[in-house]
Design a protein that fits this description.
two-stranded antiparallel sheet; globular; 11 helices; alpha+beta; 8 strands; two-stranded antiparallel ribbon
Length: about 290
C-alpha cells in the first residue's frame, strides 16, 4: 500500500506520497519491525532451549510438513507452506511467545479531542470523555485466566507466576481449550477480539503484523529443520563425567535462564527485550545433549 501510494493512478492523478516519503516510511517499517522480531526470536530460542520436549514437537511438525511437500526448509514458499506452518506447533510457539512476551507491554489510545466515546464492558456502557488517554495493559490481558488456560504440565516447569509455568503452545492447536471458545470448531486458536494484542488492534494496528509473523515462522522453520538450540552448561556446574552430573548442571543452567526470562532479566525500551544474557549453543539435530526435559 505504501509503494502504491507513491505511484500515479491510472487516471493520471499525482501520487499521494512523494518518493522520499515512500522511502522514509519503508525504512521505518523495516527498522521498527526488525527490533520487535529480533527480540521475539530471542525469546523463542530461550523458551525452546529451556523446554527440549517442546522443541522436539516443533521439529516433528516441521519434518511432517516438509515431507508432505517433498521440499527442504530452504525451498519452502509463502504461498505453498506458510499456512501449514503457522497452524502447526511452529505457529503455536510463535504466538505463545508473543502472548507471554508481547512486543509492547502497554498500548496508548486516546479519544478524539472534541468527542466522547462509549465502550461496553461486560454489558455495561462507559462514556470516555473527549481528549482522554487510555492505557491498555496488554501483558495483563494476555495472562487473564478468563481468556487463557494454564498448561496441564505447569508443575513440571516451575511454580506460577513464572513465565514457563504459563507457557502453553498446545492450546493454540485446538482453539476449544480456551475459555469462551468451547463452542467453536476445532482448529488453530483464533483469540476473542481484544484478548490478543501483540501488534495492537483496530484501524491503527501495526502495519507489519503479517510481515512479522511470516518472518518469525520462516526463521523457526529454517533453524529447527536442521539444528537444535541448547542451554550452555558451565563447567563449574558439572561435578564429574557422569550423565547424572551433566543433567544436574543443565538444570542449574535452566534455572538461570528462567530467572532471566522473568522479571530479573526482561525490560522495556523500544519493545520488550532481554537485559541480561543466556549462553546458548546450536547443534545439528541428532547430536543434542538433552533430548527431553
Amino acid at each position: 500500500h505504501i509503494v502504491r501510494a507513491g505511484e500515479p493512478n491510472t487516471s493520471g492523478t499525482a501520487a499521494i506520497l512523494s518518493e522520499q516519503a515512500v522511502m522514509g516510511n519503508m525504512f521505518i517499517f523495516m527498522s521498527g519491525e526488525h527490533e520487535a522480531s529480533a527480540n521475539t526470536i530471542q525469546f523463542i530460542f530461550l523458551l525452546l532451549a529451556c523446554l527440549p520436549s517442546v522443541q522436539r514437537s516443533v521439529q516433528a511438525d516441521i519434518d511432517r510438513i516438509l515431507a508432505r511437500s517433498s521440499k527442504t526448509a530452504d525451498q519452502t514458499s509463502f504461498e505453498q507452506q506458510y499456512e501449514d506452518f503457522f497452524e502447526s506447533m511452529v505457529g503455536a510457539v510463535v504466538n505463545e511467545a508473543l502472548r507471554l512476551f508481547t512486543v509492547l507491554p502497554f498500548i496508548l489510545k486516546a479519544t478524539p479531542r472534541k468527542e466522547s466515546q462509549t465502550i461496553t464492558v461486560d454489558g455495561r456502557s462507559h462514556v470516555i470523555p473527549p481528549d482522554t488517554v487510555i492505557l491498555m495493559n496488554t501483558s495483563a490481558t494476555h495472562r487473564n485466566p478468563r481468556y487463557w488456560v494454564e498448561p496441564s504440565t505447569k508443575d513440571l516447569m516451575g511454580p506460577a507466576p513464572h513465565v514457563l509455568a504459563a507457557f502453553n503452545p498446545w492450546m493454540w492447536l485446538d482453539g476449544r481449550r480456551c475459555p469462551g471458545n468451547e463452542d467453536r470448531k476445532s482448529g488453530f486458536l483464533k483469540p476473542q477480539p481484544g484478548t490478543f494484542l501483540p501488534f495492537s488492534d483496530g484501524s491503527r494496528g501495526c502495519l507489519g503484523t503479517k510481515f512479522s509473523l511470516v518472518e518469525l515462522c520462516a526463521v523457526v522453520v529454517r533453524v529447527f529443520a536442521t539444528h537444535s538450540v541448547e542451554l550452555s552448561v558451565r563447567p563449574s556446574d558439572i561435578e564429574d563425567d557422569s550423565r547424572e552430573s551433566f543433567l544436574k548442571g543443565w538444570e542449574k543452567a535452566r534455572q538461570r535462564a528462567m530467572r532471566q526470562l522473568g522479571t530479573d532479566g526482561v525490560k522495556f525500551e523500544m519493545s520488550l527485550r532481554m537485559e541480561g544474557s543466556v549462553p546458548l549453543s546450536f547443534t545439528r539435530r541428532g547430536e543434542e545433549k538433552v533430548v527431553d526435559a
